[in-house]
Design goal:
3-stranded antiparallel beta sheet; 10 strands; alpha/beta
Length: 197
């Protein structure tokens, strides 16, 4: 399928902001084991660029978030799949996401990772939407301020399209397009712990 979009952030703007965040992380974590965890698919490009921009050694790990409608109304089950075996005990963690909206999934993930006894947990995202929060969750490192509508590019997809764009764009939505209406669901999270190395 084809779709229309409007570029919001160019590749050079993204690269500059990634460098800014990398410098902040280098400053905040001068020593100790540092683990970057990408929430797929949206943070796939982000983690590669950020890891290379950070001057100190880092580990890279991946988590997939699977959403499944229950078929019984407005419930949605969210489960975390740890795609790599890793331990974060005694480490600093920075979780990378594409867009932070309600903060509910991020809060559950924080609680789950905290059980593994890391030294600290922080979050970085491409775009933050604090006006959509349903929790007190705060994002520590933000590339760009809030953008309404559905975003595509730099790893983020629209109907499995556009994730390869080097820029971030806003999709021009049709009136009957409900693709971005997942906020109506009540989320239940299935507890799954990281596999140890």
């Amino acid at each position: 399928m084809s779709f229309q979009y409007e570029e919001r952030y160019s590749a050079s703007e993204i690269a500059r902001r990634v460098q800014d965040v990398a410098r902040r992380i280098d400053h905040d974590y001068p020593e100790g084991d540092l683990v970057l965890i990408a929430v797929l698919k949206g943070a796939a490009f982000f983690i590669g660029d950020l890891a290379r921009a950070i001057k100190r050694p880092v580990r890279i790990e991946y988590i997939d978030v699977i959403r499944t409608a229950t078929g019984t109304g407005d419930d949605e089950i969210v489960s975390f799949h740890y795609l790599t075996k890793f331990s974060v005990a005694g480490s600093h963690i920075v979780v990378l996401k594409d867009v932070v909206r309600s903060g509910i999934i991020e809060t559950y993930l924080t609680d789950q990772l905290r059980e593994e006894k890391p030294l600290s947990i922080r979050f970085a995202c491409l775009v933050d939407r604090p006006q959509e929060r349903k929790s007190s969750f705060l994002t520590n490192y933000v590339l760009f301020p809030s953008e309404q509508g559905h975003l595509v590019g730099y790893g983020m997809e629209y109907h499995a399209r556009g994730g390869h764009f080097p820029f971030i764009a806003q999709v021009k939505m049709e009136e009957d397009d409900v693709f971005d209406s997942t906020s109506k669901f009540r989320i239940r999270v299935e507890p799954v712990r990281p596999q140890k190395t």
